[in-house]
Specification:
binds thymidine-5'-phosphate; globular; Rossmann fold; 5 strands; five-stranded parallel sheet; 201 residues; alpha/beta
């Protein structure tokens, strides 16, 4: 039926919004599934552990990028596509845009190769709608511990490049950009308004 994704830098509050959306969809009796990236499958969760392990300081940017793409390929083939074909509503906590922003811009691998490999990994499956929750430096520093996982410990310089990536992506029509300094209820109302204007259930 539809593929909806949530994006943003670490600490942007997307997990809270996804939880609120799950409650809303249950009330509406909509058949839906939620998966996180990297992860969402048994193989993907094993890849996630490698990617986020702080001890893996030696990981090259290309290895990192290909591991994210591998987790995504497994998730799309085994879980996402079959559900979309059955007419379900699928929500993803991060997807291709995360790789464009984090690996393409953050790690400076470039947008072109990131898109190409991801189109191979997903058989060119793009979301119908993407919510991008924007946060500023102060909120990021308040919410994200530098002692967090391998990606969270990257610091603000890296995140600034990731934000540039998201800014570039947000020109696309499927992107809905939301200021995550708003209250959780206001953000959620905004999300629901968009969902109701795109899909009917
Ligand atoms: P999470 O904390 O939202 O679960 O995401 C895990 C981390 O992985 C987060 O720091 C963003 C990063 N990431 C990428 O760098 N590239 C990707 O393609 C994905 C899906 C996540």
């Amino acid at each position: 039926m539809a593929l909806v994704t949530f994006e943003g830098i670490d600490g942007c509050g997307k997990s809270t919004q996804i939880e609120m959306l799950k409650t809303y969809l249950k009330k509406k009796n909509v058949e839906f599934s939620v998966f996180r990236e990297p992860g969402g499958t048994s193989i993907g969760e094993q890849i996630r552990q490698i990617l986020l392990n702080r001890d893996n300081t030696d990981m090259s940017a290309k290895t990192e990028f290909l591991l994210y793409a591998a987790s995504r390929a497994q998730l799309v083939e085994k879980e996402v596509k079959p559900r979309l074909e059955r007419g379900e509503f699928v929500i993803l906590d991060r997807y291709i845009d995360s790789s464009v922003a984090y690996q393409g811009f953050g790690r400076k691998l470039g947008k072109r190769m990131v898109v190409l490999i991801n189109e191979f990994a997903t058989e060119v499956l793009y979301p119908d709608l993407t919510f991008y929750l924007e946060i500023d430096e102060e909120t990021f520093k308040k919410r994200v511990r530098s002692s967090g996982d391998r990606m969270e410990s990257e610091g603000w310089d890296f995140m600034e490049r990731v934000i540039k990536g998201y800014e570039f992506l947000s020109k696309s029509r499927r992107f809905v950009k939301i200021d995550s300094r708003l209250s959780q209820d206001r953000i959620f109302n905004y999300i629901i308004r968009e969902i109701e204007s795109h899909f009917s259930f």
